[in-house]
Amino acid sequence: MTDTVTPSPAAFGTRSSKQLIRAEAPVLAHNYHPLPVVVARAEGTWVEDVEGRRYLDMLAGYSALNFGHRHPALIEAAHRQLDELTLTSRAFHHDRLAGFAERLTALTGLDMVLPMNTGAEAVESAVKVARKWAYEVKGVAPDRATIVVADGNFHGRTTTIVSFSTDGTARAGFGPFTPGFRIVPYNDLAALESAVDETTAAVLIEPVQGEAGVVIPDDGYLTGVRELTRRTGCLFIADEIQSGLGRTGRTLAVDHEGVVPDMLLLGKALGGGIVPVSAVVARREVLSVLGPGEHGSTFGGNPLAAVIGSAVLDLLATGEFQRRAAELGEVLDRGLAALVGAGVTGYRARGLWAGVDIDPAIGTGREISERLLAEGVLVKDTHGSTVRLAPPLTITEEELGSALTALAKVLA
Ligand SMILES: Cc1ncc(COP(=O)(O)O)c(C=O)c1O
């Protein structure tokens, strides 16, 4: 114990951005490198820092805020549920879970739901389910099941998940790793085919690789993965934790090819930017391998999460957000195309989601993000030279235009 005086709660609320950033360093783990902005409140596409400066949010919590900050329908649903019931654990039934699961199955065309909390938990759960399915249904020899994943993947941060990451920073110092994974190049059906054998439980991929810099596979890749997994008798697991729920201009990124996976992983936006909500949605034959006591989570499917998740799915059922993402995605695409050769070396975009490669002569992704911050626009860099754009799907054409103008200005 040190002899310092603990500031009163009021004092916490009166500190400047600079003071708050300085105060974090000794008491917070340094596993992030945030941009120097201290957000205090937000609404829709806009956030405000502790000094009252406003910023256009072009990151949307890595797609956890697809419906913007504090969407009125989501906040209202949350408020109502806070007054009724927040947590039971799965030791008991509660009156909100069936409706949530029914909405998820209706939206996805799949049969059963395993509710979890974070994205990483959904991925972990899918790995366990796929292995159990391989032993009990496919007949793979005990402890021999393999899962094929793609180079450049990002599926989360747990020990098992970083075991099949190809990002050295995400792995260094965290071994020993979980065995049973094979890594193949993304967007390469021939490589996938040669990695699949009688031990393969599943192929796990992101239909668009978000953290890799919004890497979009060739048309036909997802159809090919579906066809290959069906033909060879293994599961297709689509991680749509970042790509799903309207982001790409369709409800799911796999919808662009009309493909239905065996297991679909959802998260981020499913929690409406309010609470962590994730889910494994799957065919009955697959999720039926789980019996009582074999897997679970204290908070997974809790009443508050179920109500917010249901409200999110009701918003998506209107089709408005998918339509906005598709239409404004064309505006984004045209705006970025105009910047190629003017500070941008290339970009990849689908719906309201883009990875923009910055000319190293102009600056790093981090430097461009800092310059945009000074212009009142929030973005985040990835892999050194790429800037990721993923605004709330509620953004207006005018707001999107002003973000593109700011990008052009900082690149000039
Ligand atoms: C595709 C994908 N899967 C899984 C995750 C992990 O989600 P969480 O951070 O909620 O654990 C992420 C997070 O960025 C992701 O993009």
TrEMBL record:
Obligatory cofactor(s): pyridoxal 5'-phosphate
Molecular function GO terms recorded: ornithine aminotransferase activity
Pfam families cross-referenced by the UniProt entry: Aminotran_3
Enzyme class name: transferase
Keywords tagged on the record: Aminotransferase, Pyridoxal phosphate, Transferase
Known pathway: Amino-acid biosynthesis; L-proline biosynthesis; L-glutamate 5-semialdehyde from L-ornithine: step 1/1
Keyword Transferase in annotation: yes
Catalytic activity, EC: 2.6.1.13
InterPro entries: Aminotrans_3, Aminotrans_3_PPA_site, Class-III_PLP-dep_AT, Orn_aminotrans, PyrdxlP-dep_Trfase, PyrdxlP-dep_Trfase_major, PyrdxlP-dep_Trfase_small
Family: Belongs to the class-III pyridoxal-phosphate-dependent aminotransferase family.
NCBIfam families reported for this sequence: Orn_aminotrans
Protein name per its UniProtKB record: ornithine aminotransferase
Organism annotation: Streptomyces sindenensis
Gene of this entry: rocD
